[in-house]
Design goal:
The complex is a heterodimer of chains A (about 240) and B (about 400). By secondary structure, chain A is of the alpha/beta class. In chain A, about 35% of the residues lie in helices and about 25% in strands. Chain A is built from 8 helices and 10 strands. Chain B has helices at about 1-15, 20-55, 85-95, 125-130, 145-150, 160-165, 210-215, 235-250, 265-305, 310-315, 320-360, 365-395, 395-400, and strands spanning about 60-65, 80-85, 95-110, 115-125, 135-140, 155, 175, 180-190, 205, 220, 225-230, 260-265. The interface between A and B is medium-sized, with 29 and 23 residues.
């Protein structure tokens, strides 16, 4: 099993004012899946994604990544796990401002100690994969929301991660751009990269192979489905 | 490679906030420049004092009435004065002596043809000029007859000569000091100002007898200058003079003397220790400004960390370890203070060059004076950058990412 949450709870505050963001969640995700985490805001889906991405730690329960328990990891061990296996795409893009697209994409490689020239070549390639060839030297401010999010995806995939975790990747872009982003994610999934995506848009969840619904910190449904084939979308366009 | 990237990042950050970066560096710049200038000036000044004192001759000793005090001038209170017989006794009894100059000093106004100048009037023997390392510019010194009878003659220092005579020849002219007339027989070659800023050429010398009879009006002698024939013997001569004076002044064995004998080595050591203390004091004050500069860096780095919290969150999420973030901010503060340090060294060196030229003291610069402040400013960067950098490194990625 790639990722496994065992009775994971996440609590905020103490005593009377204690709030449970997650209540004893059980969730297993296998390699190659494209999982959409859905639910209203405050349902715990983002907290779940943060724990899956080792950005946050469970208050109780155990989270295993590739069958390794992570609850006793320190900050650096979690950072090493992220750097080795994970790529992140955020709702707000989270690109470094005043830093060119290609430099943003190079950043994770820099922290992995990749040589500067190799770094540049791989970053250019990743940008080409998300359809941004020719815009490598634009700064985020010079790019549209959709383009910025594709830079962020290029940054997530440049390290060849096992999993890409996306938190509302289409939240800040219009429908047409959202579809482009989903197509990029689907292509990554077809290459064998596991995708876990938080979204509240049913349209976007159609691209996933599995939809997990959250409510009040618990999972209320977990449904496998046939993902929307992007070939169809391309066919329709043609 | 991480380091190189961090330096690259740093320069980008500095360009992003040029005004802020410059003001931050200014603190370090001023601190380093001040430390360098103060130390260079202090060393230059003590070298100058050393030169001046050795210009007087390492073989000079002097005897004055009054019990010795540690360091400072002798206590003058009720000690009986010396007279010319004491000087003669030294000349007669003690071996290895080149010259003895019993000296009286008064201040007076010298007048010539409508020009006047307040100056120092010294009365002494013929040995005065050799003992005090004076050379003659024009004319002659006193002859034996003039010294013996107390003839109304004088030798002028260069400053007095210029003030009274301008470009005309003073030899043979008659000047007045109070109500006595003195004929000028010679002019001394200039020595320039002493390390304490005194004009050494601002003096008139007359025979001791002339001075005692017509100017000071007493048989007392205020100081006896003695020059040893051999510098190495000045310690022995000093002890001999001490013993001789104890006998002449009827002091018991072990009684505190009511006179003081000093040689130039002691004076040099005394002055050296004073300038040394001054130099360290100035350097310490300058170092405080460097400390304040360091606090400025820390302040700015704390601002930078909270401004860039979100950026730190992004970096942590995409693979930076805590130590990468620590290194980034640490390098940023070190680069900031090192650039300030280099600018400070440049300013400090040019500043001390300009000031030493102006004050006419030697510029003493050794490599340590450059290396140490530079290392110190870099150390300030590490020291004051560490706390903010550690704060950044310990951020929780989730909290950092949510930071607005």
């Amino acid at each position: 099993m790639l990722m496994s949450m065992q009775r994971v709870s996440k609590l905020y505050g103490e005593g009377e004012s204690e709030i449970a963001a997650l209540r004893e969640i059980e969730l297993q995700i296998d390699t190659g899946e494209f999982v959409a985490l859905m639910g209203p805001s405050g349902s715990g889906k983002s907290t779940c994604l943060n724990i899956l991405g080792c950005l946050d730690v469970p208050t109780r329960g155990e989270y295993l990544f590739q069958d390794v328990p992570t609850s006793r990891f320190d900050n650096d061990q979690r950072a090493r796990l992220r750097r080795r296996f994970l790529g992140f795409v955020f709702q707000g893009f989270n690109l470094l401002p005043r830093t060119s697209a290609v430099e943003n994409v190079e950043l994770p490689l820099m922290y992995r100690g990749v040589h500067a020239r190799v770094r540049r070549a791989r970053a250019m390639e990743a940008l080409a994969q998300v359809g941004l060839a020719g815009r490598e030297h634009h700064s985020p401010a010079q790019l549209s929301g959709g383009q910025q999010q594709r830079v962020a995806i290029a940054r997530a995939l440049v390290t060849d991660p096992a999993v890409v975790l996306a938190d509302e990747p289409t939240g800040n872009v219009d429908t047409a751009r959202a579809r482009e982003i989903m197509e990029v994610l689907t292509r990554l999934n077809q290459r064998g990269i596991t995708i876990v995506m938080v979204t509240h848009e049913a349209d976007m969840a159609l691209y996933a192979s599995r939809v997990v619904r959250f409510l009040d910190g618990g999972i209320v449904s977990d449904v496998r489905q046939t993902p929307l084939a992007i070939a169809t979308a391309e066919g329709a366009a043609a | 490679m991480i380091v190189w990237n961090a330096i690259h990042e740093t320069l980008r950050q500095l360009r992003r906030n040029p005004m802020r970066s410059m003001l931050t560096m200014l603190g370090i710049l001023i601190g380093v420049a001040a430390v360098i200038a103060m130390i260079a000036l202090g060393r230059g000044a003590s070298a100058r004092v050393g030169n001046d004192l050795s210009g007087l001759g390492q073989n000079l000793l002097f005897v004055v009435p009054g019990a010795p005090s540690s360091g400072g001038p002798p206590h003058r209170n009720d000690a009986p004065p010396f007279d010319e017989r004491d000087a003669r006794a030294i000349q007669r009894e003690i071996t290895g002596i080149a010259g003895v100059a019993p000296t009286v000093t008064r201040s007076g106004v010298a007048v010539y043809a409508g020009q006047s100048r307040r100056t120092t009037v010294n009365g002494s023997s013929a040995a005065y000029f050799t003992v005090m390392s004076w050379h003659l510019a024009t004319g002659r010194l006193f002859n034996d007859a003039e010294l013996r009878v107390g003839a109304p003659v004088c030798v002028l220092g260069q400053t007095v000569r210029n003030a009274l005579f301008g470009i005309t020849d003073p030899i043979g002219a008659t000047i007045r000091i109070g109500n006595i007339s003195l004929r000028v027989v010679g002019v001394l070659a200039p020595k320039g100002s002493s390390s304490f800023g005194q004009d050494q050429d601002d003096l008139i010398v007359v025979p001791l007898a002339t001075h005692q009879r017509r100017i000071s009006g007493t048989h007392d002698v205020e100081a006896i200058f003695v020059s040893a024939r051999d510098e190495a013997e000045s310690g022995r001569i000093r002890a001999d003079i001490d013993a001789l004076m104890r006998v002449r002044r009827h002091l018991h064995v072990g009684e505190t003397p009511d006179f003081t004998v000093r040689d130039m080595k002691e004076i040099a050591a005394m002055v050296g220790s004073i300038t040394g203390v001054l130099t360290s004091l100035l350097a310490a004050i300058a170092a405080i400004s460097l400390l304040v500069g360091g606090i400025g860096i820390m302040n700015i780095m704390l601002v930078a960390v909270s401004e860039r919290t979100r950026e730190i969150g992004i970096r942590l999420a995409i693979g930076a370890l805590g130590r990468d973030v620590l290194a980034q901010f640490l390098i940023e503060s070190v680069v900031l203070s090192a650039i300030g340090g280099i600018a400070g060294i440049t300013l400090g060196l040019t500043g001390s060059y300009a000031i030493t030229r102006k004050l006419d003291i030697p510029l003493e610069i050794d490599p340590l004076l450059i290396v140490v402040p530079f290392a110190f400013s870099a150390a300030v960067g590490v020291l004051f950058g560490y706390f903010p950098a550690r704060k950044a490194a310990r951020l929780n990625p989730i909290d950092a990412l949510r930071h607005e």
